[in-house]
Amino acid sequence: MKRLTLLRHAKSDWDDPVKRDFDRPLNGRGERAAALIGQFAKSKGMEFDHLVASPAVRVVETLDTFFDGYGQRIEPLWDRRIYLASSVTLIDVIRDIPDSADSALLVGHNPGLEDLILDLVADNGKSPLRDEVEIKFPTASLAVIDLAVDRWADVEKDGGALIAFTRPRDLDPALGPEA
Asked: Domain ranges in the chain?
């Protein structure tokens, strides 16, 4: 059994005049959400023995702030393939995780992460959490999927069980959608 935790980057600052989307930083709301999700992960005893992440600025800053809340840092493997990747590409990234890792954290972007969850977890009416993700996988959200495989290379569509889905607004309603 392998456990995959997905973290979408926190809310970025669209008012920042960066030239490239890749360079867009977090805004203050995003920083608060990332720190809160990090605190939540720590409170739930989540542990990760491998971390792979997009090198986009908003992901780097999300991880910095997440780790501030989590209380410890894990050295990421930066993988450019994750930046704006499709679900198919993300599955390839997952299949490249070393088998020595039992619990991996993947940090990236939508729509790829949302599509990945929907691809890994069967649409069979048995997962209310999947139904919630299908509505929206907001910024700084965390999803935990158990995969019934011994090797990451064996990950397949519909092969996972979504066991947790947490949005920042679930922890602090002030971090919910803006009115």
From this structure: 2-13+22-175
Residue % of the chain over a pLDDT of 70: 98
Stretch 79-83: mean pLDDT? 98
* Residue 5, beta-bridge partner list: 105, 144
DSSP at 43:
H
Residue 149's CB is within 10 A of a number of other CB atoms, namely 16
Angle, alpha carbons 81-2-35 (nearest 5°): 65
The predicted model scores a pTM of: 0.95
The two tokens of residue 82 are 């994750």
3-state secondary structure of 1: coil
* Burial bucket for residue 47 (CB in 10 Å: 0-12, 13-18, 19+): middle
Cβ atoms 134, 118 nearer than 8 A: yes
Superfamily (CATH H level) for 2-13+22-175:
Phosphoglycerate mutase-like (3.40.50.1240)
Beta strands in the chain (DSSP E): 2-8, 50-53, 77-78, 103-108, 142-147, 160-166
Q: Can you say whether the dihedral through the CA atoms of 48, 50, 54, 59 is positive or negative?
A: positive
Mean pLDDT within 115-135:
95
Q: How far apart are CA 84 and CA 33, in angstroms?
A: 21
